[in-house]
Amino acid sequence: MYKIRQAVKEDINRMAKIEEICFSESEAASLESFQKRFAVFPECFFVMEFNGIVVGHINGCIFNAPELPDALYSDAKLHCPQGGYQTVFGLAVDPQYQNKGYASALTKYFIKFSKNCKHKGMVLTCKDHLVKFYEGFGFIHQGVSASTHGEAQWNDMLLTF
């Protein structure tokens, strides 16, 4: 049985490890990045546990515009607690636990959390193969992103509440 909960400081190492496994080296947030971000916006980090083991996570800061500029990844101080848009920096599930609906469950949970916080919407960037996944939650594909994060091509996605 799985459980989604707010992350605690002790989860950071495991979140960083899952991130390292799921993303390329140039795209993955480092342990240091996780620590800096968690210090500024811990309320925006959630983990999924399966039998007491953290198997996935979702996180992102709050921003004042419906966009996800690359600067947000490197500067946690750009978090805008009163902003209207929840960003998604990362959604990752340990490969041993993938294809069980856990990424969907984390996404739904984060959307519900964001709505309960009275945000205007949620923004993220994703690779081409994930556009349909996010459209399934109501995200609208805004086109190819200006982001050069991890030297990859991304798509801007927006969910308006």
From TrEMBL:
Gene3D superfamilies: 3.40.630.30. Transmembrane segments: none annotated. It comes from the Bacteria. One of its GO terms (molecular function) is N-acetyltransferase activity. InterPro entries: Acyl_CoA_acyltransferase (IPR016181), GNAT_dom (IPR000182), SNAT-like (IPR051635). Residues 2-160 form the N-acetyltransferase domain. It holds the Pfam family Acetyltransf_1. The keyword Acyltransferase applies. Keywords: Acyltransferase, Transferase. The keyword Transferase applies. PANTHER family: SEROTONIN N-ACETYLTRANSFERASE. This is GNAT family N-acetyltransferase.
